[in-house]
Amino acid sequence: MRTKKKTNSDQLHGALDMLVLKVLADGALHGYAIALRLERLSKEALAVEEGSLYPALYRMESRGWLSSEWALTDTGRRARFYKLTRAGRGQLAAETESWQRLSAAVASVLGS
Amino acid sequence: MAGEIREELEFHVRMRAEDYERAGAPAPVAIEQAKRRFGNVALWQDHGYDVRGGGFMETIVQDLKYAVRLLVRQPGFSLVAILTLAIGIGLTTAITSVIDAALLHPLPYARPEELVQLTMAVPRPDRTAPSRYGISALDVQTIRATPNAPVDVAQWDTSDPMIADGAEPQRLRGNEIDGHYLGLFGVVPLRGRGIQDADTRPDAPRVVVIGYGLWQSRFGARDDAIGQQMRLDNESYEIVGVLPRGYYRTTALWLPLKVSPAMFTRRGAGTVTYARLRTGVTIDQASRELTSLLAGVQDDREPRVPGTYAYVETLLARETRGYWTTGNILLGSAGLILLIACVNVAGLLLARGATRLHEVAIRASIGAGRWRLTRQLLTESLVLAAAGAALGLLLAWWTLDSLVANIPLPVSTNAPATLNARVLGFSVALTLVTGLLFGLVPALRLSRVRVSGALARGSRRTGGALSRRGGNWLIGVEVALALVLVTGAALMIKSFDRMTSVDLGFQPESFTTLQASPADFNPAVFGEYYNGLVNTIREWPDVEAVGAANHIPLMGSFSYGRITLDSGQTTNVTIRKVLPGYFEALGLSPVSGRFPTPADATSGRRVAVINQRAAKQLFPIGGSTGRVITLGKEAVEVIGVVADLRNLGGNDLTMPSSMRETLEVFAPYQPAATERPEPMVVVVRPRTNAAGLTERLTEAARNAGARAIVERVRTGADWLDATVVTPRRRTVLLSLLGGLGLLLTLIGVFGMTAYAVARRTQEIGVRMAFGASASHVVRQMVREAARPLALGIAVGLAGAWAATRIISTFLFETTPTDPSAFAAAASVLAFAALVAVWIPARRAARVDPVTSLRTE
Predict the structure, then answer these.
(1) Taking residues B532-544, what's their average pLDDT?
(2) Is A2's CB within 8 Å of B364's CB?
(3) How confident is the model at residue B587 (pLDDT cuts 50, 70, 90)?
(4) Most confident of A9-13, B131-135, B152-156
(5) Which terminal Cβ of chain A has fewer Cβ within 10 Å, N or C?
(6) From CA B10, how far away is CA B13, in angstroms rounded?
(7) What is the pLDDT of residues B501-531, one digit of tens each?
(8) Is the separation of the CB atoms in A77 and A34 below 8 Å?
(9) How much is the pLDDT for B437?
(10) Phi, then psi, of B712 in degrees rounded to 5
(11) Which chain B positions have a beta carbon within 8 Å of A7's beta carbon?
């Protein structure tokens, strides 16, 4: 229904997207669990309002990086669980690689 | 989908709250903190929804919910916008409803487009319109005898009001109809039967069909009314039927149109002929066929003028002729007001849009596309329009009856104005168009917002550039639209003032009239009754003069007659029957000679008074008093001359000269035994302190002998009012519309300026901190608004100049481009608009520089 095109707003999401993909690399999680992991990874990721996580999840899902389904938590509550798709793993790998390339470049500049 | 999102978000907040609780917070605090941490759940739900999307219907529902929430969150804005739209949409709907009833669907019968009126037309070489006369009974007979004639025909006529005697005598209005009339319209009697052919024979027993209203009021809606005898004008009529409710409510009696020999002449007797075209027959076809059919009708007494043809005109065209101008003016005015309302709301939306930049930017940043945002913003406009329309329909429903009662359009009781499916459909379409009209520009502007810029500035008050200019030209547009309306109103007011300040030749405020008549329809009784009544009132110490006449000025009625002079010359005149004291009661003095006295009546002298115009024309060399003229078969002596009066009131210049410039003869009222007794109007000139006059006159009329019907007591001023009812209605209505347009414009100008001031608090604070004085700031705000105001007034004057010619036919001694009216309208509007700018601008000057800088 929606066509995606690169907008200038996309750069804002890059970091958050990569963190979410990274968190989900280990297995399926519901939104609150993702928020807790993100918190542990980086104090800044969800600094503003936690609610901002959800539009990001939906956006990534609509791009085909994530899939979701309703399931029960350990305590028996209904929650929506997200996991990486094949495309999501590819995206994570690509972004990790470009990060590493970038940081290597920065390191070599700073180190020389 | 929306439910899933909500569930997911609520799950998150609940989990967070439980964590806080485990960490030791009491439950309410935990929930409060969890919510704060999460942000506005509803907002994030909407944002999530923007990204995730859903089915088409679901998106609409979601947008609607969001729009409603937004309206509730900003009650001030919503209230002003909804009220403004309600006035625009409600007014347009109400006027549409009246136009639908009066002009589009005034005939509540089956296949109304087949109903026509038939006349015979004779081409006139000197004019485009032919002269026309009625179809005679002879023609009708021919049409009915012809197999496959193109039409069914029916004839009718109005009858003089009749006196219904009984326990409560009353005067009733009636129509005479032939046996085909009710069937032509498909009117089925509610009780009994209608008028039939057999009833119209000259020797047929007297029967009457009564209207629903009379059946209710006089017969208690009882079934046994059928078969009862009713005394009408001292004859006995059998009631044979009752017509359905609402069918010509003011007509109480439906009598058979008795066929008389006069109706069988070539020109008939002035009876009106209606017809129904046979299915598939066109107007032209009917006219052609009837022309050739009726050319063969023989009447040796008066041969047909060559070229005479059958004139066929739809009843719809007849009923609405001359009223479309009024209808168009009202629709146009309502449309202008609706446009002003739209501009107002567009201005408000633009101003509010500036404060919503932040929110829109956030939504754009998390992935809502431009189309998605535009759609959301348009949905908001449509919700606003729908809310306005709902309230507007309520307003329309609520004001419809008083509008119908005061609108200068004929709304028949047969086809009352209602909010029917057609009107509601129009209103819904109007609402959609309105919503798009005022919503599209602000929505497109807002959705084009640059994300990074708006977010980086992080301000909720930096929308100045987005809307300041827009707001300004909207002020100009509003002023221009309102000026057209106000100018129209100014012209109407000036014209009405002219019309009512015309010198009539008498002072309507100085007399009171009494309308009453005996219930006994007998000339001798009538003569005695009025003489007795006038003589009684003459004795009252607080009455200066009293008399009576069958037609008084301002009544709008005449009797035409013919007089013969000594020389044998005959002249057409109008004849009024008067009782002595009539002229004095009107406050008139003789121009020459004298007026009749009671002594003239008792002495049996036959005396008459003529007006100046008649004196000049009949006796050009002068000396009219003492001359004898023959009135019918009776010789009367002219004893005095009275001034020419404007009998038709101030409006009389709009009447044909044949009705205005009449030669008048005032003859004594002495009804002959053979005459149809005619009711008189008693004219009383009270001294200044006549208290309780109405009650005493009513009482006197009741006690003056025979059982009496007292119709009403009213002042000369009431009579004058009645002559200008339509012009007054037009004036009042156009003034109200002008006032409404002005009010909405002022609200708009005030609102847009107030927003501009609020938005620029900081800038103003900075300027004042650098030493600008308060008055300087106010001056600058006013100056900024002055340019669009001036431009709006210029455009408005040009628009008014082009538009006011549509009301030229309604104007009395006033041109549609009357400079004083234009100047008055422009000054009122300019002054009011400047005040509407100045009040909020003054607030800007009260800004405290320190506070304003802190608001960021």
Answers:
(1) 93
(2) no
(3) very high
(4) B152-156
(5) C
(6) 5
(7) 888 999 999 999 999 999 888 888 998 999 9
(8) no
(9) 85
(10) -170, 160
(11) 364, 451
CA separation for the pair B109, B103 (Å, rounded): 15
Name the token pair of B641: 């001359």
* CA–CA separation, B598 and B57 (whole Å): 89
Angle between the B283-295 and B137-145 helix axes, to the nearest 10 degrees?
110
CA gap B258, B275 in Å, rounded: 19
Q: How far is B10 from chain A (nearest CA, A)?
A: 10
Whether residues A55 and B367 touch (CB distance < 8 A) is answered with: yes
Look up tokens 């009576």; give the residue: B548
Helix axes B41-52, B56-73, angle to 10 degrees: 150
CA distance B134 to B597: 44
Nearest to B52 among A50, A52, A58 (CB): A58
Q: Are B434 and B90 in contact (CB under 8 A)?
A: no
B353 phi/psi in degrees, rounded to 5 = -55, -35
The distance of B69 to chain A (nearest Cα, Å) reads 19
Give residue B114's pLDDT band: very low, low, confident or very high (50, 70, 90). very high
A32 touches chain B (CB under 8 A): yes
* DSSP category for residue B325: H
Helix (H) or strand (E) run with residue B431 in it: helix B421-447
Q: Which residues of A touch B5 (CB under 8 A)?
A: 54
Of A9, A48, A55, the CB nearest to B48: A55
The structure tokens listed for B561 are 């007659």
Give tens-digit pLDDT for A29-61.
998 888 888 888 776 656 567 888 888 888 888
Give the residue on B whose Cα is nearest the Cα of A62.
Answer: B52
Chain B touched by A26 (CB under 8 Å): no
Which of the pair, B707 or B698, is modelled with greater confidence?
A: B698
CA distances (Å), origin B172, targets B65, B235, B250, B387, B702 = 60, 14, 9, 48, 19
CB contact under 8 Å between B53 and A32, yes or no, is no
Neighboring chain A residues of B52 at a CB cutoff of 8 Å: 58, 61-62
The packing angle between helices B324-365 and B421-447, to 10°, is 40
Q: How far apart are CA B569 and CA B571, in angstroms?
A: 7
Q: How many CB pairs under 8 A join A and B?
A: 80
Give the pLDDT mean for B361-378.
72
What are the start-end ranges of the H helices in B574-631?
582-585, 598-603, 612-618
pLDDT at B726: 87
Q: Which residue of B has its CA nearest to A72?
A: B11
Give 3-state DSSP helix, strand, coil % of chain B, rounded to 5.
55, 15, 30
CA B745 – CA B478 distance, rounded (Å): 6
**Residues of chain A neighbouring B48 (CB-CB closer than 8 A):** 54-55, 58
Q: Report the C-alpha gap between B102 and B424 in whole angstroms.
A: 17
CA proximity to B515, closest of B552, B464, B565:
B552
Structure tokens at B754: 């107030």
A28 touches chain B (CB under 8 A): no
Tokens of B188: 């089925």
The residues near B38 (Cβ < 8 Å, ≥ 6 apart) are A49, A50, A51, B9, B12, B13, B16, B44
Residue A82, classified by CB atoms within 10 Å of its CB into exposed (0-12), middle (13-18) or buried (19+), is buried
CA distance B364 to chain A (A): 8
Here the ipTM equals: 0.81
